Amino acid sequence: MLRPLPTLAELLERASVVSLPLHTRFRGVDAREALILRGPEGATEFSPFVEYSDEEAAAWLAAAIDFGWVAPPEPLRDRIPVNATLPAVAVDAVAGVLDRYPGCRTIKIKVAERGQSLDDDIARVRAAREHLGTDGRIRLDANGGWNVDEAEHAIHALAEFDLEYVEQPCASVDDLWEIRQRVKYMGIPVAADESVRKVDDPLEVARRGAADVLVIKAQPLGGIRSALDIVERAGLPVVVSSALDTSIGIAMGAHLAACIPELEYDCGLATAALLAADVTAEPLLPVDGSIPVVRPALDESLVQQSLASDERDVWWRERLERVYRVLEGWSESTGRHAAPSEAATATATATATAE
Ligand SMILES: O=C(O)CCC(=O)c1ccccc1C(=O)O
Ligand SMILES: [Mg+2]
User: Fold this and answer.
1) Which residues are listed for Mg(2+) binding in this entry (predicted)?
2) Could you give all domains of the chain from N- to C-terminal order, each with its CATH number?
3) 110 lines ligand 1 (CB under 6 A)
């Protein structure tokens, strides 16, 4: 795995910046921007959220390079069962969104959205449960939006809808630990996402017993091998999830999920269904509740149709260049470029701010 980075010129030469419109507003955006790279192993994606720092984005670049320039490990399965992802939409939009996820027996529902109330969450979760029926599973994702008391109150109010788990109810690892203790007796597990993705040490939450389940994303964890290493060391069940990537980034996640020995939970990799455009003619959309473990080829005419504005193209290329320099620094200090846990510790650069 110790191999030189492709040169910056090699990356930039093979880059396209796209902006894909969303069917439904998500994380406060109406379009997802991504920088697509063409590597010897196939297309790959660099798409840290625009507000992320260069230091934080370095793991995402390590992941992009790993997927495009190094063959992925041998998959253990050829399809990945996935959940529907329901953004914090109004009740009357719930059925329309869920119909985009054919066959999905699990729904992940965003709650605790800024500007909304617990009543909004209850109404959305109720509508989703009615749409799904009693057999399907419902998990919630608060993105750290509650304090411990608010989380306890909300989980009590939402428990009647039969919850599979609650993802990142509170922002800090301390608060996750506390809420996990408080709801343990209810049999509702707590999952950690930002507490794995946005911290210097992705294993801290597992070591401290602050979560029952880890949400694992390939790009922020430095790529497939680095994420597999974290999964192995954490010793907790995991849910591989997307970062609202294009189908290229989803393919990276699907390959990661395909390498995990035990997948007890449906994975959050159906989010191509939220995009109104994609960069491949074979988008990784759910069919019968799962997506295939494949590397879709870029469709160059679709890429052309979704190219970002010149201004955004320049912004992403400059970002790529700065982040590349950060990654070079990691390689010099650690002798490798694909292990954010070690590299971040070495350079003490990762941030722990809430999403
Ligand atoms: O897990 C899923 O169902 C889809 C992915 C998802 O929710 C997500 C996508 C982009 C950024 C953050 C998140 C998140 O899990 O918080
Ligand atoms: Mg989450």
Assistant:
1) 141, 167, 193
2) 8-72+300-347 (3.30.390.10), 79-292 (3.20.20.120)
3) no
